[in-house]
Design brief:
Helix content is 30%, strand content 22%. By secondary structure, the protein is α/β, with parallel strands linked by helices. Strands 5-8-4-3-11-13-14-12 form an eight-stranded mixed beta sheet, sandwiched between helices. A four-stranded mixed beta sheet has the order 7-6-9-10. Helix 1 (91-106) crosses helix 4 (147-162), helix 6 (228-239) runs parallel beside helix 8 and helix 12 crosses helix 13 (450-460). Residues 4-75 have low confidence and may be disordered. The structure holds adenosine-5'-diphosphate, aspartic acid (ASP) and magnesium ion. Adenosine-5'-diphosphate binds next to loops.
Length: 473
């Protein structure tokens, strides 16, 4: 299926096999929660008559010939089960993941499995590349790092066969995942899911290597760090899955990183909007782009533990109950931020240059003649190069981390900012920059203060109390 404007709530097959070109819009700047720039969903009002995807990074390419019809009608009973790196870190864990997929199949579901690379394998491959070459070519880096997911997915398929069920492993390319040409952060533009459907019809469990696809220029691409979440969500949309289950090493989405704040509570339900803010501000349990995609294509996500059968956290549309129960959903953090201070460049020129370099600008602050902006860490080098080309005077603030308070209830409860600022004052922590959205306040603070700021804000908003969590309806 092409990811194009859809009018109904569920993703449906396009009536005609019309193939349309993709138009470029180098737009990288702007609020990241405004929707996936490269994919147009039901939420984006301008549902054009012709299916067209706007805004894929500035890598224009030729229309691809239609080689397969779009995905068949959504079928009941298909689930996508995605397992992260820690869940498949060793042979024993791989066998357990296989058993879990077999159990789901035996309970009647058609199962599409997506797996990440084993343990820290992707990090190891990235550092291997840098041991060989100081600036590996993006194409070759993608060739290398896409391998991790292929290994784990073949191993899970083997383990499933040993349990007496038929399984087939597919690379992203074999699974029909077509992306744009932006190596290292490619966007999915099409999924030709026929092969997956055929295998499911043959009663197989289908394993798809996460984090990768094939570009319209026939190259292997990867989808950005954490990108197996993206593979899972996009496949769930493409095959019309009932749910997309994200199995990970924690029990769900918590009010703060449970590894940092032991009293953090598991949230039973979070709206897409809140999850977007949380993912954008450091809750790495879901990749940001996968949440945007899920929202735009109405994919219900269930984030849960690989190691227990407990219900985890549902990520779905906001409802009244969510708003009533908790003002603040969580306190998120990052310990490293790419923050740049720039002088001597007009904003239009600066952000034009960053957009042309496909840098996703996050926060922007103008202080007199000085422009401050932040970008995702993976865009750091591209931003540095763009700034050098521009000839602007710039400096990177590498000592900063970010602590954010996120909650949909913030819109209707005044005073959150006052309490948050008072907490920082009491701690003696002075934020260097502050950025806000209707449901988030983010403080850029020295890295060394991140941990205690998270803990203090978590306390201020009483997020360790069991009633901070919300029941899934
Ligand atoms: P996977 O390998 O399964 O994709 P990740 O490492 O990408 O797992 O994401 C899971 C991790 O996210 C957890 O181990 C946890 O430390 C971290 N995390 C950060 N913030 C949160 C949060 N608010 N809720 C849950 N997990 C969080
Ligand atoms: N293995 C990839 C990464 O480490 C993708 C993922 O885990 O989702 O970023
Ligand atoms: Mg992850």
């Amino acid at each position: 299926m092409r990811f194009a404007p859809i009018r109904s709530r569920r993703v449906k097959r396009e009536a005609t096999p019309t193939r349309v070109g993709v138009r470029a819009r180098g737009g990288a700047a702007g609020a990241r929660t405004a929707g996936t720039p490269g994919l147009v969903g039901p939420r984006q009002r301008a549902a054009a008559a012709v299916p067209t995807i706007f805004g894929v990074t500035d890598t224009a390419y030729e229309t691809v010939p239609a080689v397969e019809p779009a995905a068949p009608e959504a079928r009941l009973g298909t689930i996508v089960m995605k397992f992260g790196g820690t869940s498949v870190a060793d042979p024993e864990k791989i066998r357990r993941v296989a058993a879990r997929m077999v159990a789901a199949r035996e309970a009647g579901a058609r199962v599409v499995g997506v797996v990440s690379a084993m343990g820290q394998h992707t990090d190891e491959l990235v550092s291997l590349a840098h041991d060989v070459s100081p600036r590996p070519k993006p194409r070759e880096l993608d060739m290398l790092i896409s391998v991790g997911e292929r290994i784990s997915c073949a191993l899970v398929a083997m383990a499933i066969s040993d349990l007496g069920r038929d399984a087939i492993s597919l690379t992203g390319s074999q699974a029909g995942i077509v992306t744009d040409t932006a190596h290292g952060k490619a966007k999915i533009v099409d999924i030709r899911a026929k092969r997956i459907h055929d295998a499911l019809d043959e009663d197989r469990i289908v394993l798809v290597a996460g984090f990768q696809g094939v570009s319209t220029a026939y190259e292997v691409t990867t989808l950005g760090r954490g990108g197996s979440d993206m593979t899972a969500v996009a496949l769930a949309a493409a095959v019309g899955a009932e749910a997309c289950e994200i199995y990970t090493d924690v029990d769900g989405v918590f009010t703060a990183d449970p590894r940092l704040v032991p009293g953090a509570q598991k949230l039973h339900a979070v709206s897409y909007e809140e999850m977007l803010e949380m993912a954008a501000s450091g809750a790495r349990v879901l990749q940001l782009r996968s949440v945007e995609f899920a929202r735009n294509h109405d994919v219900r996500l269930h984030v849960r533990s690989t190691f227990t059968d407990e219900d985890g956290t549902w990520v779905r549309e906001e409802d009244e109950r969510m708003l009533e129960k908790a003002m603040i959903s969580g306190v998120t953090h990052t310990v490293e931020e790419a923050v740049f201070e720039v002088r001597g460049s007009a904003p239009a020129e600066l952000f034009g240059a960053l957009a042309a370099a496909a840098v996703n600008v996050d926060t922007v602050i103008q202080i007199g003649p000085e422009l401050v902006f932040s970008a995702p860490l993976e865009d750091r080098h591209d931003a540095e190069e763009a700034l050098d080309r521009l000839g602007a005077a710039w400096e990177e603030r590498s000592e900063l981390g970010k602590v954010s308070v996120v909650g949909a209830g913030m819109r209707s409860h005044p005073g959150i900012a006052a309490r948050a600022f008072a907490t920082l004052t009491d701690l003696g922590v002075e934020p260097r920059f502050v950025s806000t959205s209707p449901i988030k306040i983010a403080f850029y603070v020295p890295r060394t203060d991140v941990e205690r700021t998270v803990t203090a804000l978590h306390e201020t908003f009483e997020l360790s109390r069991p009633e901070a969590e919300r029941q899934h309806a």
